[in-house]
C-alpha cells in the first residue's frame, strides 16, 4: 500500500465546506465554484490520502469512518494556518507578539482576571507573560526591561525613565486570629503593645527597597515570600499583620480573622500605580491594557480575590 500524499490547504478547506454546508452543491455556492470542481477536488484529496472520505451511495454524501477521523485533523490544520495568518497580519501592523505584565501581590486577583479576559478577547494573537511581585520588585522588572507594564504598589522615588500614573487603591486591614492575644484587646491598641507581638510581613526581593521597612512595627517579625503564606499563618494565629481587605472579607465574616485597631489607624489605603518605561513606547496591545487598568472601578465589590 502506497504512502499517503501531501494534501493542499485548498483541498482541506473544500472537504470541510462539503461537510459544513451539507453537500457538493451547497459547498460550490459558498466557495463560488462549480459543483464538478468541488467533486474533483474531493476525489483528488481521497486519492492523495489513499482513503475514502465520503460515502456517495446516498443522495447526500456522508462521512466514512476514515472521513470522520480526518475531518478533525483538517479542521485543526486549517485553524492553525488561520491563526498564523492573523498573527502575521497583526505583526505587520505593529502589534506586539508578546506582552509581559508584572503585578503587585496586593492587586485584587478578580479584577486582574476581568482585565485579562477582556485582553484575550481583544488581542487573541498576543501572548502574555504574567508575574506577581512585592514592593520594589515590580518596578525592578519594568526598569530592567523584563516587563513592559507593571502595577506597582509602592510610591517609590522613580527614575526619569519610568512613567507612572495612579490607577487606584487597595484597603489594607491589620488582623489576627480570634485566639491571638491581640484579639482580646478592646478598642485602640497602642503601638507599644503591637511591638510586643510577632508581626508577619512580606519580604522584598528587589535591591531597590531591600532592607527598607514599610509599616513594620513589631520588634520580632517574620519575612514571608508571598501573600498566601502570610494569610495562612495569620489564620493559624502565629502573628498579626495587614492584609488586603477584599482578600480576607470571607475570613472576617466567618470569624476566622478579626480586625485590629492600631493607634495609627485601623486601615491603610495602599496605592497602585501603572508604570512603564518612557524610553520604550508601548505597542497597541500595551496601550490598550494600560488604559483598562486606569479605567477600573476599585470601589466595586471584589471578594473573589
TrEMBL record:
InterPro entries: LysR_HTH_N, LysR_subst-bd, WH-like_DNA-bd_sf, WH_DNA-bd_sf. Gene3D superfamilies: 3.40.190.290, Winged helix-like DNA-binding domain superfamily/Winged helix DNA-binding domain. The keyword Transcription applies. Keywords: DNA-binding, Transcription, Transcription regulation. It comes from the Bacteria. Pfam families: HTH_1, LysR_substrate. The keyword DNA-binding applies. Residues 7-64 form the HTH lysR-type domain. Belongs to the LysR transcriptional regulatory family. This is LysR family transcriptional regulator. It comes from Pseudoduganella plicata.
